[in-house]
Amino acid sequence: MLRLEPLGASDHIGISADFLFTPSSPPMNKTTPNYNRGDYESLRNALDIEWKRELVGLTAQEMTNIIEKNITDAVEKHIPTRKHQTTSGDYTRKPLWMTRTAYQKTKRKRNLWIRYLNTKDNSDYQQYIKARNEATHANRRARRDFESKIAQESRHNTKTFWNYVNSRRVVKGSIPDLQDPQDVFLKETEADNGSTKHHNATAGLDPFPKLGKQHGNETQSNQMQNNASRKIKPSPGVHNAPR
To answer: Where are the domains of the chain?
Structure first.
């Protein structure tokens, strides 16, 4: 267990501990299609197939497999790929807004904190406080300038804008564990299949609505008379709408 630098301007220090587990981290190098440089004319010609003749006499699953294979092969042939790095292990990508000056000041702040932990000298602690304040101001200035530049160029440079938005977006790819009325946790597949039933049960609704008896001898004139006898409340309109 290690003692880290304080959080912000607080006097409380941070604590770092090591946990032994196996993370499911993605690989460092990831290959994805580069759709901006694709040969869509050749891709269109490759998919110009007489589907009625190719899919005749096949089941739905066999049709899906053939269509998917043709599309995948055409994309791999006519769409180039690109490699980019992803976060994995101890590698951490720097924020898009961080400048070289902000990075150097942040690194100096961490080094001074480690020096203070080793010496316990008050002068080293004062140097750390000064470096901490400089790093905080540098990070705020770099982030403010970067966001201001993106806002000004967002109309003409949408790619940079959405790259920054996606970098700050947190997406959960799996369905979390759910509890049924008996406090039993459901698996992901069970939660996916029974989520509607679980929602109806918690809301006090029947899983399936019960339909009333239908009278086969009810004529169209009787239905029109029943509809005419009902009092239908008109909509309040714009002026009588509740506020």
So the answer is: 31-84, 95-153
